[in-house]
Amino acid sequence: HVARKIDQWGPDAVFIDSGAGAGVIDRLRQLGYDVTEVNFGGKPNDIRYVNKRAEMWFDLAEWIKAGGAIPNDTSLKLELATPTYKYDAANRIQLESKDDIKKRLPDAGSPDLADALALTFAHPVAKRSLMQQFGARTSKTQNYDPYEMLNRG
């Protein structure tokens, strides 16, 4: 399904959650697609945040406040409004965990739509050239080797 969407939409980048999407990432790479795995619990680029998840969500919030448009989808809006945040001992921003959301709001589902939207803010993305956009398929990499990093050692 993801490969078909990549072919259909021709995105400038594809970010996939490395926790829930590890199998999807591996398969897409086997098929030659250039995807970037993102660890939600990983190190953020900005030291103001505890982890990548908090950084992405706050970048998303800034984008919306600056005029970014989201679909008129009630589920997405509810998910975006659900998590709270706090500061840790080092004064970094920490977004409420999914487990804590479920404890606080037992009927609340997992914020999967909102996480997917936030994932689009994982890293800066440069616009592909017009030639790449309308020319040959460029969503695939050439000769991807999933063991490349191991072979360098």
How big is the Rg?
Answer: 17 Å
Q: What series of H and E elements makes up the topology?
A: HEHEHHEEHHHH
Could you say which overall geometry the principal axes of the C-alpha atoms support?
A: globular
Largest sheet: 2 strands, parallel
DSSP summary, beta strand count: 4
How would you explain this protein's 3D organization?
This protein has 153 residues and is mainly α. 42% of the residues lie in helices and 8% in strands. It contains eight helices and four strands. The strands form two sheets. Strands 1-2 form a two-stranded parallel ribbon. Strands 3-4 form a two-stranded antiparallel sheet. α2 links the parallel β1 (15-17) and β2. α3 crosses α6. It is globular, with a radius of gyration of 17 Å. The chain starts with a helix and ends with a helix. The model has no long low-confidence stretch (mean pLDDT 85).
Q: Can you describe this structure in just a few lines?
A:
Helix 3 packs across helix 6 (112-119).
SSE layout:
Blueprint: H1 2-9, E1 15-17, H2 22-30, E2 36-38, H3 52-65, H4 74-81, E3 85-87, E4 93-95, H5 98-104, H6 112-119, H7 130-134, H8 148-152
Parallel strand pairs: 1-2
Antiparallel strand pairs: 3-4
Helix pairs in contact: 3-6
Entry keywords:
mainly alpha; 153 residues; two-stranded parallel ribbon
